[in-house]
Design a protein that fits this description.
Number of strands: 11
CATH class of the largest domain: Alpha Beta
Oligomer: single chain
Helix content: 40-55%
Order of helices and strands: HEHEHEHEEHEEHHHEEEHHEHHH
């Protein structure tokens, strides 16, 4: 067992993460000292690099620009020969050992633990989810899940019908805290870098893993604290929405049946204008117009195109 655990690494993707990464690395060193930290920095302009370089035992990979989460994860995994890779967001701090995740990943292929907030409360609806159906995505796009959290579609999608203290197989753990075997990553061809810069790359990876016959074990006895959204909050609101919608449509093009995919495209088109108006009010300027126009145009192309190639375009 000791030799097995030494063949594990943690890939931590940073972007202006100076206020979070040290706590993440401190916790990793404290409870999982047999796991090698690999920090992949996506063009931080703050003191993230300075703080990481001041530490010993941390492998650092630096990108001059933000190459996206999926690309950075692939970089980190390729740089190591570890048999097991733990994906950790920089705002995630381990509270327990992750030895059990290594054991579970060795048996099943992938594994994840339970995420809690700063007060120790389970992050229901985020730690684990089912794969999104067309209905779930449409409810997300139209804001139904935000306004009516307990609706039946959202309860299924976010596993709100499940006790988070119950171990077992799950469909989609958060990529913020996910263990994968290297051979699984290699067989799947890594994370899909077309999901850029963020969102849905972890959902796509888990879905491809399940389709390939691997299981994903959820072990609530392995716990980490998650602050949440520190990098996302640094994105301009308009761009944030654009990235989310484009990645969502790419996921829908790959994994949903034709009718469901078209319905999701239509929902994005219908929601673009009211969201643009809300973004303008929130920003107090016309700045969001450009991003929401791109989103409207992209969704429209996806809706009217005969195939699904529009959703794979790389110019957004």
């Amino acid at each position: 067992m000791e030799g097995l655990l030494l063949a594990a690494a943690a890939v931590i993707v940073t972007y202006n993460s100076e206020n979070a990464v040290e706590q993440c690395l401190d916790a990793l060193t404290k409870v999982a000292s047999n796991i090698t930290p690999i920090v992949v920095d996506n063009g931080s302009s703050d003191r993230t690099l300075k703080r990481v370089r001041a530490r010993t035992g941390v492998q650092l990979i630096t990108n001059e620009e933000n190459r996206g989460f999926a690309t950075a994860v692939n970089q980190g995994i390729r740089s190591s020969n570890a048999e097991f890779i733990l994906l950790l967001n920089p705002d995630v701090s381990l509270l327990t050992s992750v030895d059990a995740l290594v054991d579970a990943a060795r048996q099943h292929g992938l594994a994840a633990g339970k995420l809690v907030d700063r007060d120790g409360n389970p992050q229901a609806g985020f730690s684990i989810r089912r794969f999104p159906t067309a209905g779930a995505l449409i409810f997300e796009i139209l804001g139904v899940n935000r306004l009516w959290r307990s609706n039946p579609v959202n309860r299924l999608y976010r596993y709100l019908d499940r006790n988070l203290d119950q171990p077992g197989d799950v469909e989609q753990p958060a990529g913020a805290f996910l263990m994968t075997r290297r051979d699984v990553w290699e067989k799947l061809g890594g994370f899909d870098e077309s999901f850029h810069p963020i969102w849905f790359e972890d959902v796509d990876y888990c879905r491809r893993a399940r389709s390939a016959g691997y299981r994903i074990a959820y072990l609530p006895g392995v716990i980490a604290s998650h602050a949440g959204g520190h990098s996302i909050a640094q994105l301009p609101p308009g761009s944030r929405a654009l990235y989310w919608y484009v990645s969502l449509l790419r996921y829908a093009a790959r994994h949903l049946p034709p009718f469901g995919y078209r319905a999701v495209c239509a929902a994005v088109v219908l929601s673009s204008v009211p969201r643009m108006i809300a973004g303008m009010i929130q920003a107090g300027s016309l700045t969001p117009v450009t991003a929401f126009w791109k989103m409207f145009r992209f969704a429209g192309l996806c809706l009217v195109s005969r195939g699904r190639s529009a959703a794979r375009r790389s110019d957004f």
